[in-house]
Amino acid sequence: MTRELLRLPAEPETVFAALRDALSGSGPAVLPVPLAGAVASADAPRVARRVALVVETSGSTGRPKRVALSADALLASATFSDSVLGGAGQWLLALPVHYIAGLNVLVRSIASDTSPVVLAAGPFDPLQFATAAETMDAPLRFVSLVPAQLTRLLDTPEALGVLRRFDRVLVGGQSTPGPVLQRAADLGISLTRTYGSSETGGGCVYDGVPIGNTEVRVIDGQIELSGRVLAEGYLDENFESDDERSAAAFITEHGQRWYRTGDGGEVVDGTLTVTGRLDDVIISGGLKVSLAAIEQAIRALPGQSAAVVVAAPSDRWGEVPVVVTTADVPLDELRERMSRLLGPAAAPDRVVVVGQLPELSSGKPDRRAIHRLAQ
């Protein structure tokens, strides 16, 4: 059995109404698109009946994917989240709704029968955030942010009071620098780091611990996730099942389905630590170098919380790390520090200083654009 797939512009109110019908089974599946796009018509694509939502991944590091999610997976994610956060509450929507983090806010609001407070469209403004948050009056109040938004709020004294009023601030989407986490804790912000992806219906590991019936394991250095939150798989450009791509990412062992994340990590005493993308490892001078490890170390330095590390070709070494940042840092000191912490091959070849780092609409760094700057 199949159902119609409704492609509609990612306007929060429009997506909220359509998603409610999709989750209940009374309406078509939904694919939010970032710009005004095609709406349902006589020749609209059809997807499997179980599919309620299709999310196009950001494509920040590669070709975008179309992830098909069932209502069961999405509502399970909301239920698992509520169990950790202390119950259902009201959400502030500060993220685009064509990405899973923003869509998660809508799903959780639908599941809790509340209406989210929606931040005005446009560039993130901490003062507008504070004004919107002041209108929230539910007993439990939550918000989901990316690290760049959290950093801007911490830098805005007028926003700190209202930020403390949230019962929980979820931060995910990318690695959050340790100094930012510590600063938030020192300022009394109730913060939870989330880990997940479109393929897991959003965050399914909170502060390193799986939520609900989510399970985590590390096989050959790669994080794998299992549980009710897993997506159905991928769709191709014609919205047919992309069996080849799905089979590469989703495996079944002894009747249990697992998603291969492509992230490296380790589990110690039941707590997951994510070390970065496995495809971020380069070979420089014959040695393996983790760009994610270099980036994490550099982001711990004062003024470098948003720095990005990418690879660039080198006639001598093959590939070398390059730091792209908005705040200059002495290259010699940086090379010495990275060599000491991570080995000589981790020493950056150069620092590229830009006025502003390119970002996707989700707030994540646009790594493809940053890679071009680094060349």
UniProtKB/TrEMBL annotation:
Entry keyword set: Ligase
Question: Which Gene Ontology molecular function entries are recorded, alphabetically?
Answer: acid-thiol ligase activity
Instruction: Spell out the Pfam families in the cross-references.
Output: AMP-binding (PF00501), AMP-binding_C (PF13193)
**Which stretches make up the AMP-dependent synthetase/ligase domain?**
45-220
Instruction: Write down the InterPro entries for this protein, in alphabetical order.
Output: AMP-bd_C, AMP-bd_C_sf, AMP-dep_synth/lig_dom, ANL_N_sf, ATP-dep_AMP-bd_enzyme
Q: Could you name the domain of life of the organism this protein comes from?
A: Bacteria
Start and end residues of each AMP-binding enzyme C-terminal domain: 294-364
SUPFAM superfamilies associated with the record: Acetyl-CoA synthetase-like
Supply the name of the protein.
O-succinylbenzoic acid--CoA ligase
Q: Which organism is it from?
A: Glaciihabitans tibetensis
